[in-house]
Amino acid sequence: MLAECTVVVPTIGRPSLDVLLDALATAPGPRPAELILVDDRPTGAPLTPSRPGLPPVRVVRTGGGGPARARNLGWRSARTPWIAFLDDDVVPDADWYERLATDLADLAPDVAGSQGRVHVPLPGDRRPTDWERGTAGLATASWITADLAYRRAALSAVGGFDERFPRAFREDSDLALRIMGTGARLVRGERRITHPVRPTDRWVSVRVQAGNADDVLMRRLHGRDWRQRADAALGRRPQHTAVTAAALAAVGLAAGGRPRAALAAAGAWAAGTAEFAWARIAAGPRTRDEVTTMLATSAAIPVLATWHWLRGVVRHVGVRPWRGLPDLVLFDRDGTLVRDYPYNGDPALVTPVPGAREAVDALRARGVRVGVVSNQSGVARGIITREQVDACMARLEELLGPFDTVQVCPHGPDDGCECRKPAPGMVKAACAELDVDPARCVVIGDIAADVDAAAAAGATGIMVPTPVTRKDEVAAAAHTAPTLTAAVDAVLDGAW
Predict the structure, then answer these.
(1) How is domain 328-492 classified at the CATH fold level?
(2) 124 CB-contact burial (10 Å; exposed 0-12 / middle 13-18 / buried 19+)
(3) For position 75, what pLDDT does the model report?
(4) What's residue 198's pLDDT?
(5) pLDDT < 50 positions in the chain
(6) What's the pLDDT tens digit per position in 120-167?
(7) How much is the pLDDT for 1?
(8) Are 422 and 453 in contact (CB under 8 A)?
(9) What is the largest CA-CA distance in the chain?
(10) How far apart are the first and last CA of the chain?
């Protein structure tokens, strides 16, 4: 079973990564097909993860796109039916491989994912700190990707993780709700990981208040009852709003010359802040450092929580459901990727349009597969040979890099074939070859035949007109872009 699974680990190069890799290298049991490490650092020396006992390891880099983008690049780079996500600060049990194989074996077709069980070790000789208690909540959280295996097809169907969630917070719950919204089920397996409490500074509880903006995004995307469906507690945000309102009222009343009312509002703020601080102090070890940290942060948290919530309210107005990137982008060749020399059979004349290499590489860098679909009726007309067509395609790959699929129609317009655009044959064949749903495919071309072939196959077409493109074709196209670069930028921005 693990031969059909890829393990994906997004990382920012923390020392805990070595602990995870050591555990995966020394654990007994079957190995997955591949381990993909997604380096999410903007810069830095290449990771050196290889060690005896690991499955085949591949490192890919995002350039610092955040956890959602890192996980997306990981699963898009994999080719197995199952993707098992692990965080870089967890330690799998010794039997993790064996239990993962058991957890994934014989799952019903409607099961899209299997979550592992999380253990958070807490000190046995004292009460846990506020940060330790927060981390301990991972042990009972639903659908966190610290250890969660998904079917690749389920990830593809919903566009993967929503990259508008910039932190490692709520992006996993959002994904789970979208996948379950397709009618699929998520289950809990029996494998286990340990999630140690990560060392941090005393201000971490202040920084994590930025997640309140993500809660607004969750509500906009999933409705008022998203917390119940995601098993996510509301927490103290209503109290934080009330305490912040009292503080603002105290300041405003004092400025307005109403000292008694200002004093009453200030008293309400002080009482609310004191109650919050004591609730955190009472549950903890009550050391001097912990008490001073709770006092300082309890005064700041209500205001920051409210501020980030309001920021989310403004930022996420009119937000639309996440579509993600396509799984495959197919390009017409002549007039789109390269300058159009009619019936060209000379590789020396294969000349990329400006920005072609950069545009195709941008898709590859995000894990999107790329291909070519090209009408070559010059073969049927006897003007060029199939060998010349293949030589030009080989030159194209020398200039623009390798393509995941290349589809050529050598027939003429009167041959009645199913592959010549605007017929959908080549688009369907490319999708079938790469096991891609045509609905997750984009075709970019310069004439109506390209976008019509996309529509006939159930894909999305984007027209990049050239001076020879007829005006009526441009007017009829559902999606157009002024340049190839602009078309690819639109795809990467989700506007496809």
Answers:
(1) Rossmann fold (3.40.50)
(2) exposed
(3) 98
(4) 92
(5) none
(6) 999 999 999 999 999 999 999 999 999 999 999 999 999 999 999 999
(7) 74
(8) yes
(9) 96
(10) 35
Q: Quick check: 131 and 280 in contact, CB under 8 A?
A: no
Cα 156–Cα 157–Cα 163 angle in degrees, nearest 5 = 60
Contact 189, 156 (CB under 8 A): no
| DSSP of 436-494 | --GGGEEEEESSHHHHHHHHHHT-EEEE---TTS-HHHHHH-SSB-SSHHHHHHHHHTT
Dihedral angle of Cα 201, 203, 205, 209, to the nearest 10 degrees:
-130
Written as six digits, the tokens of 354 are: 């400006």
Superfamily in which the 2-200 domain is placed by CATH: Spore Coat Polysaccharide Biosynthesis Protein SpsA; Chain A (3.90.550.10)
- The continuous run of DSSP H or E covering 265 comes out as helix 259-282
Give the residue extent of every domain in the chain. 2-200, 237-315, 328-492
Distance CA 373, CA 332 (A): 5
**Could you tell me the two tokens for 173?**
């719950």
264: tokens are 């009453």
Catalytically annotated residues = 332, 334
